[in-house]
Amino acid sequence: MPLSRRTILAASGTGLALVAAGGVWRVTRTPATASAPWELPAPTPSDPRLDAFRHAILAPNPHNRQPWIIRLDGTNGATIFCDLDRRLPHTDPFDRQITIGFGCFLELARIAAAERGLRIDQSWFPEGEPQPRLDGRPIAKLTFVPDPMVKPDPLFAAIPKRRSTKTLFEDRPVDPASLQRLSSVFGMTENDWFAVSADNLPATVAAVRKLVLEAVDIEMRTARTHRESVDLMRIGAREVDANPDGIALTGPGIEAMAATALLTRATLADPASSAFRQGQAMMAETYGSIPAILSVTTNGNSRGHQLFAGTLYARANLLATDLGLAMHPMSQSLQEYPEMARVFAQMQALLRPVFANGITGPIPTERGRVQMLARIGYAAPVPPSPRWPLETRLAQPL
Ligand SMILES: Cc1cc2nc3c(=O)[nH]c(=O)nc-3n(C[C@H](O)[C@H](O)[C@H](O)COP(=O)(O)O)c2cc1C
Predict the structure, then answer these.
(1) Candidate from 63, 208, 220 with most ligand 1 atoms within 8 A of CB, to mutate
(2) Distances from the Cα of 54 to the Cαs of 81, 120, 214, 241, in angstroms?
(3) Is the CB of 61 under 6 A from ligand 1?
């Protein structure tokens, strides 16, 4: 959340003096270690599971909580658990989004394993689907199997280039052929469907935009949901390197503001502060920058549907990367807490039929659940978000 020069100038005289005094070194500060996992350093680990998981930890996931715990079993197995302390109880009361993040993780692991000629046999929620919240039972059990039939996935190379681009998008339409490619990301099992839909219809985009901005406002004005984000903000490079997760606030403006004590978790949480108001204006500006939308809908809302939604979202995000498109999830309106209920219902009603239109055959649309909503467009490249190193996510030391 880069705060503008205007905010800094609005600071008190004392604050300005501090910025000036600290400016020389502060403005050049960037996180030093937080993005190291994106470099996928050579040599490739000899254990293909570690190679798959060093890619998987780069998956998109809510508030960058990286809730995965990876237990290596024997020589070719692994069990994935949720670190229950890394959930988001206020904005994600049923752990739906956390589960979607695990779907993204599993898809990236699958793609990386395929690159080495391995199939991953996956058993999702092998000890039952935890409801209404996740618990200590495994998310998935995986077995890595050499398989000459497995083909490399064309999306593999996009894994380290993929981003959630949380900046303003260029004010130009998205190439319709790209939207069509994204809408072809689709999954079907014997009794089920899972669909991605990408759309730039002006009426749909305008209606989505209105609800998105309402939802952002509700989340920020609801003290406990806003506090959940604020508590996870890492302010400045030093905090980001110390805790490479959550919401990273970096850049010269942030370092300067943090030096004045105008930018703290307390000011960010206080609706009367200039930091809060500045953040609110910036959120409205970026979340309002919607050249086109992408959504993921599933035919139900079981834990399996949520994992499947994650696999499709990850594929769509990787494909968008290949197509030169930026993508940014906007989840506020899809969240299940009472203050959001009206906007939630309106967004579901708006987007469910859009998806259903892309599917042939009889579809019980009333069961359809919009799991992900993102804006898509063109934007300047952004740096990777922080990650904990793989070793810190393993249940046992290597
Ligand atoms: C289920 C889900 C919901 C998300 N919702 C939002 C959101 O509402 N706003 C946002 O800025 N990013 C959202 N994200 C993106 C994450 O913040 C992002 O993946 C994380 O910070 C890691 O960054 P990266 O994707 O660039 O690696 C969401 C991601 C997932 C998987």
Answers:
(1) 63
(2) 16, 15, 37, 18
(3) yes
Q: What is the tens place of the pLDDT at every residue in 184-206?
A: 888 888 778 888 999 999 999 99
Query: How many angstroms separate the CA atoms of 212 and 346, rounded?
Result: 11
Centroid of ligand 1 to alpha carbon of 337 (angstroms): 19
C-alpha 164 to ligand 1 mean position (Å): 6
Burial environment of residue 216 by CB neighbours within 10 A (0 to 12, 13 to 18, 19 or more) = buried
pLDDT tens-digit series, residues 100-131:
999 999 999 999 999 999 999 999 999 999 99
Q: 97 in ligand 1 pocket by Cβ < 6 Å?
A: yes
- Cα distance between residue 294 and residue 370, in whole Å: 11
Kindly report whether the global pTM for this prediction surpasses the value 0.90: yes
Query: Looking up tokens 């805790």, which residue turns up?
Result: 243
* Residues 309-357 pLDDT 10s: 999 999 999 999 999 999 999 999 999 999 999 999 999 999 988 877 7
Distance 15 CA to ligand 1 centre (A): 33
Pocket test for ligand 1, best of 38, 57, 61 (most atoms within 8 A of CB): 61
d(CA 92, ligand 1 centre) in Å: 13
Amino acid at 397: P
Please report the pLDDT score of residue 253 as a whole number.
86
**pLDDT on residue 362:** 58
Atom of ligand 1 lying closest to residue 313 CA: 31
* Of 119, 109, 123, 112, residue with least CA distance to 146: 119
Where is 277: in which H helix or E strand? helix 274-287
Q: What angle do CA 48, 53, 57 make, to 5 degrees?
A: 160
Confidence of residue 364 (pLDDT cuts 50, 70, 90): low
| Domain annotation for the chain: domains and CATH numbers | 36-160 (3.40.109.10)
Tell me how far the alpha carbon of residue 24 lies from the centroid of ligand 1, in angstroms: 33
Looking only at Cα atoms, what is the longest distance across the chain? 69
